[in-house]
């Protein structure tokens, strides 16, 4: 029998595809909100192995998802590199901005064990508690996306601070990306060694780059990460998710060597079927707002994903993270329709 998600990542077609959701452990679940209150700060929750393992497992218990994804955050890596990171209620993440060679020089040479060791412990704890059919997914942010937060000190609408840095000081920006490639490779390898069976690399801000910049700051770094992780973990299964990559998605697949490609809800499913799915399994791509809306709008969205992509290797998922306001009954309705 084995695990359905791993079979699909090996290129097999499943009539009923494996299902998990990005941000499936989160604020839409009352049990998550209860743990979040106990934990104190958001990073306190991420770095508390007992509580992080519990919230990782909550959606699997409730919905029977085919995968559990580690509960953590992409900004654990800059924290482990020595940057100050905090999450302010109502404001999101705040970091000390990094905008020059002096900031680069202050980065640690290796990830701080005090930061990453609790994450690896969470992975070990979840792995020990998961059933025989549920796959454990680890993750990190892609170098470009993590760099956008490090340069600006926060999230921005178009990531102009990082794009500007990459234009006016390409050498130092390349040094930052190279450092994040090294850190991400180390971090993902650590997650595999702790028990992760698959990892996903989130490049949330890939869509703001021109084709030339996308090639340099998204494709080439991801290629190095895939090669570096597989040097330490031969055959490692790695899902790439370059959100908004559109026409650059196919070269991303061909050049990086990812095991599967995540697509957002704007990617045409027919094109995904005819180009991407001929090469690797596809993951996606229900619009999170359709899941929020529920009803017949959700039914149509689910049916369209299954019609266009269900004939090949598919991991059924959203095109981005589940929204906090999403009703639980809508998730149940979606799962019933996929598995029905």
Textual characterization of the structure:
With 340 residues, the protein is α/β, with parallel strands linked by helices. The protein has one domain (4-339): TIM Barrel (Alpha-Beta Barrel), CATH 3.20.20. Helix content is 52%, strand content 13%. It contains 16 helices and nine strands. It has helices at residues 4-9, 30-39, 42-46, 49-63, 76-80, 101-105, 113-129, 143-152, 160-168, 170-194, 211-232, 249-256, 269-276, 288-293, 295-309, 328-339, and strands at 67-69, 85-88, 92-95, 135-141, 198-203, 237-242, 260-262, 282-286, 314-318. A seven-stranded parallel β-sheet has the order 1-4-5-6-7-8-9. The protein has a two-stranded antiparallel ribbon with strand order 2-3. Helix 7 packs parallel to helix 10 (170-194), helix 11 (211-232) runs parallel beside helix 12 and helix 13 (269-276) runs parallel beside helix 15 (295-309). It is globular. The two termini are 20 Å apart.
